């Protein structure tokens, strides 16, 4: 028997997140805390990407359903996988970059920062998932473009609020 036959990974962690914007920060921090506890070999930059993607997917679930969602975190041995189950049948679609003035950046950021993402129907709702690879960041031009546009959208949003 090889060592791979006996390899074990941490037990996936799963919890409910109650509706409301105040629930998002503790949930995203818990995702990162789990990765740290499991000693997943991720750089600080990769952990920040993990946290941002978790924040966006959890916030989308809570915003679009106004109901609790279930978060599951797994370590595959190569990637951190975060799944967010909600009660909406609405298909998740990244908006166009020009739609990112005051919102709509969430899935574009996930698409740019995660190594993969997707969704599947589950019961009376769906599960949106993403994976971030340990030890490497997505560094292509798309990442930079989306991050710059998201930052510009946030700056515009701040200007609108202060006017």
Report on the architecture of this protein.
With 163 residues, the protein is an alpha+beta fold. Helices cover 40% and strands 22% of the residues. It has helices at residues 24-37, 44-65, 106-113, 141-162; strands spanning 13-17, 69-75, 79-86, 116-122, 125-133. A five-stranded antiparallel sheet has the order 1-2-3-5-4, with helices on one face. A hairpin with a 2-residue loop joins strand 4 and strand 5. The longest helix has 22 residues, at 44-65. The protein is globular, with a radius of gyration of 16 Å.
Strand and helix layout:
Blueprint: E1 13-17, H1 24-37, H2 44-65, E2 69-75, E3 79-86, H3 106-113, E4 116-122, E5 125-133, H4 141-162
Antiparallel strand pairs: 1-2, 2-3, 3-5, 4-5
Helix pairs in contact: 1-2, 2-3, 3-4
Short description:
The protein contains four helices and five strands, in the order βααββαββα. The chain has 163 residues and is of the alpha+beta class.
Overall geometry: globular
How is the main sheet built? 5 strands, antiparallel
- Overall strand count: 5
Structural class: alpha+beta
Q: How many distinct helices?
A: 4
Using only CA atoms, what is the Rg? 16 Å
Low-confidence stretches: 155-161
Portion of residues in beta strands equals 15-25%
> What separation lies between the terminal Cα atoms?
68 Å
Rounded mean pLDDT is: 82
The proportion of residues forming helix, as a percent range, comes to 40-55%
Strand ordering within the main sheet: 1-2-3-5-4
Q: Please trace the helix and strand order, writing H or E for each element.
A: EHHEEHEEH
């Amino acid at each position: 028997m090889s060592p791979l036959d006996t390899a074990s990974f941490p037990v996936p962690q799963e919890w409910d997140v109650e509706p409301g914007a105040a629930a998002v920060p503790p949930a995203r921090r818990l995702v990162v805390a789990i990765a740290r506890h499991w000693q997943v070999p991720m750089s600080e930059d990769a952990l920040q990407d993990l946290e941002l993607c978790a924040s966006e997917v959890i916030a989308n679930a809570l915003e679009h359903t106004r109901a609790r969602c279930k978060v599951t975190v797994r370590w595959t041995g190569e990637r951190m996988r975060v799944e967010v189950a909600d009660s909406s049948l609405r298909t998740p679609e990244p908006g166009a970059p020009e739609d990112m003035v005051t919102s709509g950046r969430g899935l574009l950021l996930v698409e740019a920062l995660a190594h993969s993402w997707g969704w599947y129907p589950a019961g009376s709702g769906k599960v949106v998932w993403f994976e971030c690879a340990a030890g490497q960041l997505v560094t292509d031009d798309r990442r930079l473009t989306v991050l710059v546009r998201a930052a510009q959208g946030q700056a515009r949003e701040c200007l609108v609020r202060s006017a």
